[in-house]
UniProtKB/TrEMBL annotation:
The protein, known as: Hemerythrin-like metal-binding protein
InterPro entries: Haemerythrin_Fe_BS (IPR016131), Hemerythrin (IPR050669), Hemerythrin-like (IPR012312), Hemerythrin-like_sf (IPR035938), Hemerythrin_metal-bd (IPR012827)
Entry keyword set: Iron, Metal-binding
Record-linked PROSITE patterns: HEMERYTHRINS (PS00550)
Gene3D superfamilies recorded: Hemerythrin-like (1.20.120.50)
Superkingdom, taxonomy of origin: Bacteria
Lineage, opening ranks: Bacteria, Bacillati, Bacillota, Clostridia, Eubacteriales
One Pfam family this sequence matches: Hemerythrin
Keyword Cell inner membrane: no
Ranges where the Hemerythrin-like domain occurs: 14-129
Organism the protein comes from: Pseudobacteroides cellulosolvens ATCC 35603 = DSM 2933
SUPFAM superfamilies recorded: Hemerythrin-like
Family: Belongs to the hemerythrin family.
Length: 136
């Protein structure tokens, strides 16, 4: 499987597109890690992914929300709630027993990212595209 950002996923903002690409990259890395899964301990690698994702959500959501606020996006509150939901979900995942269920954790993480891309980026983020364009 290849998790690849495509030109038609663009929300017409270079910074946000770059940030979204980064999420695809993290997803791809998790997928590669699952496919090469062997008996090695992946605990450190998984914790690294969690911390990277955590940094990423905080940075990206804040950046996006500020930009949407600037352009007076009418559905900002609902959008913020969705962001909050993804942050909580990631928090729950990080608090599970990771050590003894490493492969399951990676599989759940890849599902989490796939959901985020399909349910959020390709729907909710796409929905603000026109508001961003009108700002220019
Ligand atoms: Fe986004
Ligand atoms: Fe968003």
């Amino acid at each position: 499987m290849i998790l690849e950002w495509k030109e038609n996923f663009s929300v017409n903002n270079k910074d946000i597109d770059e940030q979204h690409k980064k999420l695809f990259e993290i997803g791809q890395r998790i997928y590669d890690s699952i496919s090469t899964m062997n008996s090695y301990d992946r605990y450190d690698e998984i914790m690294e992914i969690f911390s990277e994702l955590n940094e990423y959500v905080k940075f990206h959501f804040k950046f996006e929300e500020e930009l949407l606020e600037e352009c007076g996006y009418s559905k900002l509150e609902t959008h913020k709630m969705e962001h909050h939901f993804f942050m909580k979900k990631l928090e729950r995942e990080a608090n599970r027993d990771i050590e003894s269920s490493q492969k399951e954790t990676l599989v759940r993480l890849i599902n989490f990212i796939a959901d985020w891309i399909v349910q959020h980026i390709l729907k909710e983020d796409m929905a603000y595209k026109e508001s961003l364009m009108m700002k220019r």
